[in-house]
Amino acid sequence: MIDFAYAADAAAQPSVLMQFAPLALILVVFYFLIMRPQQKKFKAHQAMIAELKQGDHVILASGFRGKITKVNEQYFSVEIAPRVEVEVERNAIASKVA
C-alpha cells in the first residue's frame, strides 16, 4: 500500500522542463517587449547623432533648442540664443528638429 502511494506521488510531479517553462516564457516576452525595442531605439539615436552637421537644429536633453555651430569628435557647440553658445557632449542631443 505504501509503495502505491509513492508511485502515485511520483507520477504527479511535473518534469524539470515543465517547471522551467514559465520562466523561459517570461524571459522571451521580456526580451521582445523591453530589450529589443530599447536596442533599436539606441541604434537609431546613435545613427542620428552620427549624421548631425553644422547648421542642424536640435533639441538638447535639457530641453533647450538650438543650432549646431561647431562639430567636434566628442562635443557639439550649440547656439541656444543669439551669441550664446554652449558646448555639449554628443549624447546630450535628444533629437533633430526638421
TrEMBL record:
The gene is yajC. One of its GO terms (biological process) is protein transport. Keywords: Cell membrane, Membrane, Protein transport, Translocation, Transmembrane, Transmembrane helix, Transport. It comes from the Bacteria. It comes from Neisseria weaveri. It is found in: Cell membrane. This is Sec translocon accessory complex subunit YajC. Belongs to the YajC family. GO terms for cellular component: plasma membrane. Its main location: membrane.
